[in-house]
Amino acid sequence: MPESLTRREFMKELGKLGAAASIAPMVLAGEQMSDKPFSIKRPSFIKEVDEPTTEIRWDEVKRIAEGEVTVRRSFSKYISQDRIDKLTDIRTANMDKYLKEGRDGYTLKDHALKAGAGKGGVSRVFIQDPEKVKTPESLGVPKWTGTPEDATMIVSAALRHYGAASVGVVELDTNTTEKLIYAKDPDGKEMRIEDADIPEEGEDYRVIPKKARWMITYTVQMSEETMIRCPTHLGTQTTSLTYRRSQNVQERGQHFLGGLGYMAMGESSTNALAIAPALGVMSGLGELSRYNRLLTPEYGSMVRVFKILTDLPMAPTKPINAGLLEFCKSCTKCADHCPSKALSFEKEPYWETIGGWNNPGHKAWFEDSVKCRSYWYETGNNCGICFAVCPFASKNLSSYSRVRDYLTATVPAFDGTLTKIDDLLYTPYTEFGKPQKTAESWWRMNLPDYGISTDQTVRETS
Question: What is the pLDDT, as a whole number, of residue 17?
């Protein structure tokens, strides 16, 4: 664990920001925003780019069978059943002990909150029942038509109204982004991409029509205030609640697209259909991080990523360079705080993967998912500390945050200083592997709905 700054050291680091003082008034007064009618409202220093900041060798990327390679679905492929049984016994014993001793974050009310957060949300489906969708044909009118730009605008508006935080679009290409669709989904069904008029699913397969070329990606926010209580029940319920909310966004989005007269293939279960972080990067929702997940300019690490595939022609949104991947090269906070030591400390991302759960063909900081998942058993929860300590996890509303974002995108030399300042402002150095704040303190907070701020991404209007 790194040591925190002394007051003298902190003032010295702040002094380094003096060179940036001339740009601060411009940043604080308001930045020039994108003039595209469907884009996320972003400062002009966040650049759209033709290629993502993550380097890719598409000829090495393979369509993977999600349920057969990921540690999430196939833990027993990578460790013995005897080891899993022992980990399960440890989890059972710890959960019983923590509850009965009233440990912070594991009390009865924390347990009840976690149980409730996992409820609600409609069931995910690959395709909606046609009889339940009010199509233009059933209403006696032609299907909606407009420019691809108009399509992206209205889909973005609808999904954000339904609960998405940010929305992007990837136009699939056979030799590149189509490879991000799973060869088999988590249900073990083969994902066939064929010349077909409509999507179809059977007992062991799902058919994606080739004419469905537009993958809609969207994020759903997580609450920072509960996530920084990871790895307790309060932290883990953050993910459960976010996924339940996303289920409703997906169903509404599928009905919206069907109501326009177009197909809408969704995720049949959690993290299905295609590789979410990769599509988030390709559609410009964010960049790939040291913890090998999507890092966004607006919400940092406090999001989950989802997708819907459609044949509605849409204007793709481009990858971005907000300086986030570059920032991760000098910042190792997620790795510093990882209790299982599953994250990389290498300065540069690399091509060589770790374990069969990582897809080759892109340059990243590959994590040891077996170490990570094993630690989950000890805590009884999905850890999430790496998300919680990221410097961009903190609410992106303060004047400091806006200066930080500007410097991150434009002056990489300040990255180390910004990390040290974040250490002092946002990351108290509690006992290693423990939450940043107590769960008990959360119960006394007066937070907005879902504990999130919804005004950090606003679409431009004409």
Answer: 57
